[in-house]
Specification:
Blueprint lengths: L1 H18 L5 H9 L7 E7 L8 E8 L4 H8 L4 E2 L4 H7 L33 E7 L20 E8 L4 E8 L1
Antiparallel strand pairs: 1-2, 2-6, 3-4, 4-5, 5-6
Length: about 170
């Protein structure tokens, strides 16, 4: 009986330590986007997730040596060609009035500590993918109701075809 108790204690410790291992944001992005991102070099990254509820934001900017990833993304129907929709524009850059450029009060939500958009310079040519991870979302690619919610749980990726760069962002509130 003593041996089983010690075995149980050792197994519990091993499971606890396994959960404490470092996770790679690049690996997380590869899994979430179902892409091989191993050829990318991290230019910038940050992750503010933590605490009991896991709220926070993840940001990863990867640079690629060529446009091989662009060919894969262009062939994947889960990716949309730019320009961004109004909802994703609000999330990334904020919405402005077309008439006078004034702030319409929608975003940006994916910003640094100074409130500046993390995706900079603005991506003009490429593709984007939106994944809604909200618990009540029936279609993970549908972004139409995101701005109407009291909380956000989504993943957004932008591929800049002019610079061969991928932006991977998640927001959980």
């Amino acid at each position: 009986m003593k041996h089983y108790r010690w075995l149980l204690i050792v197994l519990c410790l091993l499971l606890a330590l396994t959960g404490c291992g470092a996770r790679s944001l690049q690996g997380e992005a590869s899994r979430a986007l179902e892409l091989d991102l191993s050829a990318g070099t991290a230019v910038s990254e940050r992750d503010t997730h933590g605490g009991f509820h896991g709220d926070g934001m993840s940001f990863l900017k990867l640079s690629f040596p060529d446009d091989a990833l662009a060919d894969v993304i262009a062939a994947d129907p889960a990716w949309n060609p730019l320009p961004l929709s109004n909802v994703t524009t609000a999330l990334v850059y904020g919405l402005r009035s077309e008439e006078d450029g004034s702030d319409l009060g929608w975003g940006p939500y994916l910003t640094d500590e100074q409130g500046e958009p993390l995706v900079s310079p603005a991506v003009e040519n490429g593709w984007y993918r939106f994944i809604d991870r909200h618990a009540q979302s029936y279609d993970s690619a549908d972004e139409s109701e995101v701005l109407e919610r009291g909380s956000f749980n989504f993943t957004l990726a932008l591929y800049d075809a002019d610079r061969n760069e991928l932006y991977y962002l998640t927001l959980d509130t």
